[in-house]
Amino acid sequence: MNRFAFLTLYRSLTRHRLYAALNIGGLAVGIAVFLVLGLYVRFETSYETWLPHHDQVYIVQTVVNMPDSPVNGAYPNTMGGLLEEMKADFPGLTGTRINGVGATVLRGGIGTAEDLAWVDAQFFEVMDLPMVQGDGARALADPSNVLIDANMARKYFGSTDAIGQTLTLNIGAGTAPYRVAGIFAPLPRNTDLKFTMLTRIPNGAPKGNEDWWYHWSSTSVNTYLRFPNPAAAKAFAARMPAFVVRHGATDLGADADKMMQLTLLPLTDLHLTPAGRDMASMRQTIITLGVVGALTMLIAIVNYVNLATARAGLRAREVAMRKVLGASRSMLVRQFTGEAILTTALAALVALALAELGLPLVNAAAGLALSIPYATVVPALLVLSIVVGIGAGLYPAVLLSRFPAAAVLASARSPGGGRTGARLREMLVVFQFALATAFITGTLVLVAQTRHLRQADLGFARDGLIVVKSMAGLSEGQQGTMREAIASLPIIRAVGIADSAAGGFGNNNDNNIEIPGRPGYGPSLREIVVGRGFFATYGARVIAGRVFDNQHGADDSYGTKSKDNRAIVINRTAVGVLGFRSAQEAVGKTLGKGHPRTIIGVVDDMRFFSPHVPMEATYYTYWSHDVGAPVLTARYAGRMDAAMDAVRDTWRKIAPEVPFDAAPANQELAKLFEDDDHAANLFTIGSVLAVLIGCIGLWGLASFNTSRRVKEIGIRKALGASSRDVVKLLVGQFLRPVLIANVIAWPLAWVAMRQWLAGFSDRIALSPLYFVAATLLALAIAVLTVIAQSLRAARATPAWALHHE
Amino acid sequence: MIRLENIQRRYVSDEVETTALADIDLDVAAGEFVAIMGPSGCGKSTLLNTLGTVDRPTAGRYLFGDRDLVALNEAELARFRAMTLGFVFQSFNLIDELTIAENVELGLIYRKDAGGDRKGRVAAAMDRVGISHRARHYPHQLSGGQQQRAAIARAIVGKPKLILADEPTGNLDSENGQQVMDILTSLNADGATIIMVTHSPSHADIARRRIDMLDGRIVASLARAI
Predict the structure, then answer these.
(1) If pLDDT is split at 50, 70 and 90, which confidence band does A805 have?
(2) Tens digits of per-residue pLDDT, A655-668?
(3) Which residue segments constitute the domains of chain B, with CATH numbers given?
(4) Residue A559: CA atoms inside 13 Å, Cβ hemisphere, count?
(5) Are A536 and A588 in contact (CB under 8 A)?
(6) pLDDT in tens, B62-99
(7) A719/B81 touch (CB, cutoff 8 Å), yes or no
(8) What distance, in Å, lies between the first and last C-alpha atoms of chain A?
(9) Is-contact B78 B110, C-beta < 8 A?
(10) Cα separation of B71 and A494, whole Å?
């Protein structure tokens, strides 16, 4: 490009300011969306990549494959003692367990809960955490040492210079002093590891875990292994079935390797791999958002091509003159491609500014903390400018350079790209609007589904409930005292204890219930142990029979043996699973051969767990006191914060040494689809901007077409066309591509949204209304975009128009 | 049929006020063939546009029959043009994206009474000017003379009472120009009123009356002896 080429570009941009603003602005928004969503994808796919030699680390997955079990699936957890048994069979194996047990830090009689994890002595050989102070591996040699992260050091000791200090910790059983022997850097955000303190895991089963620490099919810790290369990992995985048979036969039976497999998952794949029954794929969400970003930029590039080719004709005279003066075609192609690259670079610069301004908004909407890594982004944008510049500039450049000089100079008229040019532009508009309409449809479905999740009938009233999760920290005697004290608060209406609560905490027990007269183990049902007041607190709807009642002494299963007959209440889903035709038929029946259970009532399904997990067939048993892994739920009347304060005060009076942990139930439930909410917000932002860019393109094209048709409009008016006829003509011209676009958009959106909804057990139906609404919306947007110019063109006096060249 | 009284047309730009038409008084009877002549910039085209209601006078009265056209709104003028007028331009003004037949049909589609036999009327109009064989072609595929004949077909397809021609032969060679004049003469013989702007004295002589303009005024009006 020579000096004059720069000059013509500069003048062409400043002379046609609106055109320049549309062109650069549209492209900038497109690049900004791509950039922000790209950062998001990069963040979500970067989990654990910050760890040194992360590519050599694998997590052991337990794949459960039991007959008729709803828990079948792959879980990133293993039996507590698995690593010990592995090391016995495979000496030289490098591995560590991470068991996030949590700890209470005691200071002045007040307890504070912290994320403490038990790890093996080899931990630092597997996960080489960056240290701020001390030697991590040496620190773990002594089980009375604790490693804390820099934030903890500042919190408890005022600085990171805390080596040698003492922390009094209660880790599950008993309080003891620990010596701070190492300070590690706080974990970054892109990790699923969750700890701020580390101590050595006890040798053998920890106190209170003896029953299941070495019980195959239990899952309680994460086990990580490190291999020098993928081949070694593969070889190790191949030896797992024999290992499972060798060690698991006692618990799992002779065909242990059929019931359960152990597999290796690369550590970096962990974040995007759904666990167990989870139907939603995080990976799919990431891909979708990445595609939205790329398509939005593509729409913006299409705009550029569209506007550039549309306007190519206006520069025909310049091209002809350059040719007359001796410019070759390749010189012209270079000039116009160069212009496109420069324009794109300018747009990229604006995009960077837009992204920087927009990031706080996006972060807030999606619960992220993204920032722009300039060292990576600036070179990437440079490459992008060149690639997009060539991609978007080449066609207009070739088109422009092809104009025959003599014909252009001899005629008063400028070539407009001809019929092929017009057809191409229409196709590009179809393409843009197809994507835009698909995005609108997607957004409507997304918004409807997230709204549904927020409002769906869960089988209980989600408002007015407080879930107290820290009950498990209380001693057996304190549980009852706490329950009575909270129940007697004036703001509290009802209190119930169970080993589950809205939001899904506590125990996770599934049992097979044999059905008389049917072969096999029978279907597997979730067991929830409840205490007094549970059903009343949740307001469970009784469909048949009755719920537990202290008046019926036989209801109480506390202290009974598993082979004793226990009274159970089942949920609606269990009625069908257990083979009953109706809830009424189920009441009074006794199931389970060796472990008899008598159904006394049926309640409606209550959804405590993620909407991504199918509703489980469930049975409830009643313990009059000391429920294991208890969670307390309280129903209050009045203000949430007042109720929370009252409960907290009561707690602090009775058990100040146990950290209080409670939250409103609706908040806990919202956490279950927080990721969906965030993804939906990102998708909506992307879609709205994509539609906006599409509109900019349509507007630019309409403005070009209208100005090109000024004369035609004059002729038509001279022939008697009214302003209305002209508006109809101009608007109609754009409705055709928009309508064709819808035909393409519908199946696209249908396939995509059906796929997405399939990830929810509790989902809305994919009604045609969403598609019709999106089409109407797209049409309205298109009409609004072009109507103003059409009106202006239609109102111009024909005499002026006829002299317009 | 037509009476202009004190018609004025002034253009106001930022600093200059230009008077394109000053105190024009003109009567044209039904069936006349009027030629308007004068140097460039004298107001010929402005007068023609005013007659064609595509430009509005700044002052004065324009009576067509007994209707005062100055009082009509845009929509009424559009209907008036559709029903009453036919335009022929120097630069043809055919629409590039439409075929010749479609361009000719354009002269009918804004008339509410065009009725069912549109195709027949279009064919007849094209036949009359001798371009039927070019019906499916696009304007750029035709010679200038053929394009102008197509434009005349578009002007006459609605059987207008008044045909306004703005230098219809200006872009044509003498042979094609003569053909166009022959068509206009025969249309006039069939009863159409024609007002034509021209630079060609010989073509002006074909008209029955010749009006000379200078600086926005009519300076002479000469009827040809028949």
Answers:
(1) very low
(2) 888 889 999 998 88
(3) 2-94+161-223 (3.40.50.300)
(4) 5
(5) no
(6) 999 888 998 888 778 888 888 888 888 888 888 777 88
(7) yes
(8) 31
(9) yes
(10) 82
